[in-house]
Amino acid sequence: MPVKHVDEILKVALVMAKPEEFFGQAAPTTLPAPTVEPSTSVS
Amino acid sequence: MTMKLLGVPKYEPGRKEKENQVGLVTGLCVTQAGGDTLATEATLMPGKGKLIVTGILSDMMKESAQAALSYVRSRSKRFNIDDKVFENNDVHVHCPTGIPKDGNSAGVTIATAILSAITRIPVHREVAMTGEVTLRGRVLPIGGLKEKVLAAHRAASRPCCSPGAIARTSKRFPQGSRRGSPHAREARRRDPQGRAGDGEA
After folding, report:
1. pLDDT given at position A29
2. Would you say the C-alpha torsion B139, B108, B32, B38 has a positive or negative sign?
3. Cα separation of A20 and A24, whole Å?
4. Would you say the pTM of this structure is higher than 0.90?
5. Looking at CA atoms only, how far is residue B55 from chain A in angstroms?
6. Bridge partners, residue B32, by sequence
7. Is residue A39 part of a domain?
8. Quick check: helix, strand or coil at residue A3?
9. Model pLDDT for residues B162-192, shown as the tens digit of each residue
10. Residues of B with Cβ-Cβ distance to A14 under 8 angstroms
């Protein structure tokens, strides 16, 4: 089974009655961008 | 008769497990004797959150195990895993058999074994898999797919999970192993005229 994300493999490999409950939400492929704190240092 | 003529087999090909087990996953690897299945075990024990990797593994494979654990940890909320599980337990990943293992294609296998060990969900004994996993969970292409698919076919492991980016290589698989192969089906779906179908030698 050609797959692109490891969750697709987990859905097939793990013995679960209802995989959709375990993998309820779509797998995030990217994390939210880190928030950058404004620099308070004064040179 | 074959054994009488050729003697005791030098290599014993891997066989699928007799029952579904927690933390035991069938991976696929390439050895000097060709493709083979590789049982990968993972277990949890009280500790301080260390990852222990054993089984004559290369540094690349150890890093692959670390990436697999990081993926599972980063998705712990999604998998309903308490963060304290990682803080209060050591994770031990072991690849038995005495042959040296190299490469990073065991990433998905190790990730599945770790998740199974933590959640106590058994793994299908007939599923064999291969592929490199990234921290985002993407499955990257690997080498030796032909040998690995043949090994899965020999071990009677039906589904073979591997990176989709190399489904086109199914054209090179021997005809017997391609029958029912998910890669062949994928190739047929993309090429309904049959140029990539099972009919090709």
Report:
1. 47
2. negative
3. 5
4. no
5. 23
6. none
7. no
8. strand
9. 776 555 555 555 555 555 555 555 555 555 5
10. 112, 115-116, 119, 121-124
